[in-house]
Amino acid sequence: MKSITSIVLFIILVFITSCNNDEPRFSPSEIQNALFELKGTYHGKMRISYYQGNTISEGNACKAVSKDSLTIYMDLTPMASVITDESVASRLREIGVVQVKAAYDFLQMDNVSYHFALLPDDVICLGGSDVPETVKIVFSQIFGGDADYHYHNIIFNLSPTELWVGDKKYEPFQQLVYHYEGTYE
């Protein structure tokens, strides 16, 4: 009886591990083709809201550039408007627009669109002797979007999760979502 149980457990284990394989990734040529299809400068609007809550800003003009990664020009003024510490809010307004670079992680490709995750780098605005403290913005790595390359549209979300001023995390910061919709020029 023990040998039958062992065999059954072995078969179940083999079945589970064979079903646990990740979906096949895309070939280098498929990724190159997707990057080529998405290449260009997109103009559109950025809406900013709390992660689960009210809209902060509706429809600010925004530009995104797609090459081998996505570059987004993100305005920190709406973020500054929700910061209660005036010195931190002033520093964000002073910085103004930052450049966020995000690598693509393609999840699905079909005949007219791509679905992807974005892996944005942290944004670091250095301080110094004549400039207030360094500001660092940390982004979530679980947001992404869709691109319809037939109609040259792109939609994606970026989500700042942490704000650091100097070497201290700004604790009152609430996670935001920057939602972008744009069209290739």
Topology:
Layout: H1 2-19, H2 28-38, E1 40-50, E2 55-66, E3 70-75, H3 77-80, H4 86-95, E4 97-109, E5 113-120, E6 123-125, E7 135-139, E8 144-148, E9 153-158, E10 160-165, E11 168-169, E12 176-184
Antiparallel strand pairs: 1-2, 1-12, 2-3, 3-4, 4-5, 5-8, 6-7, 7-10, 8-9, 9-12, 10-11
Give the biggest sheet: 8 strands, antiparallel, barrel
Summarize the amount of helix as a percent range.
Answer: 10-25%
Q: What average pLDDT do the residues reach?
A: 84
Distance between the termini: 71 Å
Q: Tell me the radius of gyration.
A: 21 Å
Would you tell me the structural class of the helices and strands? alpha+beta
Instruction: Give the percentage of residues in beta strands.
Output: over 45%
How many β-strand runs? Answer: 12
User: Widest sheet: strand order?
Assistant: 1-2-3-4-5-8-9-12
The low-confidence runs, each spanning 5 or more residues with pLDDT under 50, are none
How many separate helices? 4
**Elements, N to C (H/E):** HHEEEHHEEEEEEEEE
Shape annotation: elongated
Structure description:
With 185 residues, the protein is α+β, with helices and mostly antiparallel strands. The chain has helices at residues 2-19, 28-38, 77-80, 86-95, and strands at 40-50, 55-66, 70-75, 97-109, 113-120, 123-125, 135-139, 144-148, 153-158, 160-165, 168-169, 176-184.
A few lines on this structure:
With 185 residues, the chain is an alpha+beta fold. It has helices at 2-19, 28-38, 77-80, 86-95, and strands at residues 40-50, 55-66, 70-75, 97-109, 113-120, 123-125, 135-139, 144-148, 153-158, 160-165, 168-169, 176-184.
